[in-house]
Amino acid sequence: MSVAVSETMMPGTAPVIVVKGLASSYEIEHLARLFLPGAQMRMAEGTRGAAVVYARAGGRRLAAGVRLAGRCVARTAPRPAQAEDVKWVLSRLLYDALREVTGIRPPWGMLTGVRPLNLVRKMLLQGGEAAAEARLLDRCDVLPGKYRMARQIVARQQPVLQSSGGRSYSLYVSIPFCPSRCDYCSFVSRTTDREGGLVAPYLDKLAEELALTAEMADANGLRLESIYVGGGTPTALDSRQLERLLLAVATHFDTAAVREYTVEAGRPDCTGAEKLALLKAYGVGRVSINPQSMDDGVLARIGRRHTAEDIRRCFAEARAAGHGCINMDVIAGLPGDSNAGFAQSMEAVLALGPENITVHALTLKRASNLVVDGRNDAAAPGVMVAHATERLAKAGYQPYYLYRQKSSPDNLENIGWALPGHFGLYNIFIMEEAHSILAVGAGAATKLVGAGGSVIKRLFNHKFPAEYIREFEQLQARKRGVNAFYARYLDSETAG
Ligand code: SF4
Questions:
Q1: Could you write out the DSSP letters of every residue in 129-159?
Q2: Both 315 and 213 in a single domain?
Q3: Which has the closest alpha carbon to 141: 100, 101, 107, 93?
Q4: Helix (H, G, I), strand (E, B) or coil at 337
Q5: Cα 173 to middle of ligand 1, angstroms
Q6: CA gap 258, 117 in Å, rounded
Q7: Tell me, what's the pLDDT at 109?
Q8: Residue 262 shares a structural domain with residue 238
Q9: Residue 185 near ligand 1, beta carbon < 6 Å
Q10: 302 and 316 housed in the same domain
Q11: Which backbone phi and psi does 437 adopt, to 5 degrees?
C-alpha cells in the first residue's frame, strides 16, 4: 500500500494528491487536505520536482514523509499486528510529518469528519471519561479547548436526546426562495425577483407533500416533536403566500403540540411587522433573524440588500410581535471583515439580546458568486471564532450544538450558542440523528432513523423548485419509501 500527496510548485496550480495502491484512500486524502486545502486527487505520475507527501505500508514497517518548500521530513513505525490499525498508524505518521513541515496545528487534530461530538460520545460510552480524553487529546491531537467544548456540549445535549426518541420525528419544510442572492451562498435558492412566478405553483405542490407526509407519519404512529421551516428565506414569500404556507402546515400537523416551531426570517429586507405577527399567530415559537455581519460595508460587499439598522428594526418588530426566542446567525471570515470589525458586530448582536447566536466560519463553495466571479477574498476566521467563543461565554451563552463543514477554513467549526433554557431542539435532533426528519419541498432531504439509530436512510427531493413542481408525481412515489422503511424497521426500540 502506498500513498503520495504532491503539491505542484507551479504558481496558481492547486496542490495535487496522489494515491496509489489503496483500496480506499478517503482518510489519507482528507487528512492531507487539512494541511493542503483545495488539493486535487491525481494518479501517481508527475511528482518530479513537486512537493510530495507519501505514505507507504510495507510488510514490516510503515513509512510516511513530506517534501515541501525545500524541507523533507520522514517518519516510520513497525507495522501493527492488527490489520485495522495499519491505516490509522500510517495516518498518524503522515499527520505528524505534515504538522512538522507546515507548522500548522489543526484545532481538531486528525479528526476529518464533520461531527466530532459523535466521536466524543462513542469514546465516552466505550471507555469512560479518562479514556475518551486520552483518545481525543493524545491519539487524535485535538486541542484541549476544543475537546472541553465538545465534552460540555455532549453533556448539555444528553437530556434533550434522552427526552426524545421512540417514534418521534421532526418536520422540515423547505422554501427555496430569497429576495436576492448573497454572494457567499451556495444553496439552490431562487430569487423572488426573477422566479417569483414559481412560488404559487410551488406552494400548491408543497401543500400536497405536507398532506402526504402527515398521512405517512400517522400511518406509522410517528409523533411530531419539532418543525423547522427554512430555505432560502421563508419570509421572502409575500404575506398572503406566507399565510397559505402556515395554514397548510397547521392543517396537517398539530403545531400546538410540538416542542419547538422555528421559521427562518433571515433577511430584514423582506421581513416586517405583518409577517412577524403572522408567524406568531400561527404558533411559531422561534425565529431566526440573520445579520451575518453588523458592518454595512461588509453587508454591501457580500451582496446583502440591507443594513445593520434594518436588522435592528426587524429585531424590534419581532419582539413587538411577541417573539421570545430569536436566533441570529453571524459569519466569521466574510470578505472585507476584520478582527476588530467582527468584534464590533458581536457587540452589536449582543446588545440586542437574542436567545440564540450561531457563529459560522465562512466556508465558500464552488457555486457561490464569490468563487464563480473570482472574488474569493475571505478574511481568516480563526481569531474571530476565538473571540466569539470567549465573548459569548462571558455574556452567559452556552454552546449547545456544533458541526464542521468539509473544507472549513482553518479547520474550524460552526457553533450554536444559547442562553440557558433556549437550546434550539431541531438543531440537536438533526445533527445528532436523534430521530427521523421528514422533509418536504425542493432540495429537502428526508432522513429516516431506525433500529435505535443504527440504520439511516435518506430520500432526496428534487433540487430546484421548477423540477420539484414538474416531477412531483415521481417524488410522491419515492416518498412512499418512508412507509417501506418503517415497515422494515418496526422494532421495539422505535415502537411506542
Ligand atoms: S438569504 Fe441565505 S439562502 Fe438566501 S441567498 Fe442569502 S445565504 Fe442564500
A1: HHHHHHIIIIIS---HHHHHHHHHHHHHHHH
A2: yes
A3: 107
A4: coil
A5: 16
A6: 26
A7: 93
A8: yes
A9: yes
A10: yes
A11: -115, 115
- Smallest CA separation from ligand 1 atom 7, residue: 185
Give the number of the atom of ligand 1 that is nearest the alpha carbon of residue 180. 5
Q: How many helices (DSSP H) and strands (DSSP E) are in the chain? A: 17, 19
Q: Ligand 1 mean position to 288 CA, how many Å? A: 13
Categorise residue 49: left if φ over 0, alpha if ψ from -120 to 50, beta otherwise.
left
Distance in angstroms (rounded) separating the CA atoms of residues 226 and 223: 10
Question: What are the start-end ranges of the H helices in 357-424?
Answer: 369-372, 382-394
Whether the bond into 232 is cis, omega within 30 of 0 = yes
Count structural domains, the chain.
3
Domain that holds residue 143: 116-159
- Is 422 found in the same domain as 349? yes
Contact predicate 280/326, CB 8 Å? no
Shortest-distance Cα residue to atom 8 of ligand 1: 185
With a 6 A CB cut-off, is 308 part of the ligand 1 pocket?
Answer: no
Closest CA to 36 of 114, 99, 109, 108: 99
Based on the fold, state whether residues 90 and 154 are members of the same structural domain: no
- Asked if residues 206 and 177 have their Cβ atoms less than 8 Å apart, the reply is no
Are 148 and 97 part of one and the same domain? no
d(CA 417, CA 356): 6
pLDDT in tens, 462-486: 999 999 999 999 988 888 889 989 8
Question: Model confidence over 144-177: pLDDT tens digits?
Answer: 999 999 999 999 999 999 988 778 999 999 999 9
- For residues 148 and 209, membership in a common domain is answered with no
Answer yes or no: are the C-beta atoms of 265 and 288 closer than 8 Å: yes
Position 184 in a domain: yes
For residue 235 and ligand 1, the question of a CB distance below 6 A is answered with: no
Entry pTM: 0.90
Determine the 3-state secondary structure of 320 from DSSP: helix
Question: Are 61 and 168 members of one domain?
Answer: no
Cα separation of 440 and 282, whole Å? 19
Domain of 451, CATH number, reads 3.80.30.20
Does position 408 have pLDDT exceeding 90, yes or no?
A: no
Residue 185 falls inside a structural domain: yes
pLDDT band at 34 (very low <50, low <70, confident <90, very high): confident
| pLDDT tens-digit readout, 97-113 | 999 988 999 999 998 87
b/e 465-483 (16+ beta carbons within 10 angstroms → b):
bebbbeebeebeeebeebe
Helix (H, G, I), strand (E, B) or coil at 245: helix
Residue 44's pLDDT band (cuts 50, 70, 90): low
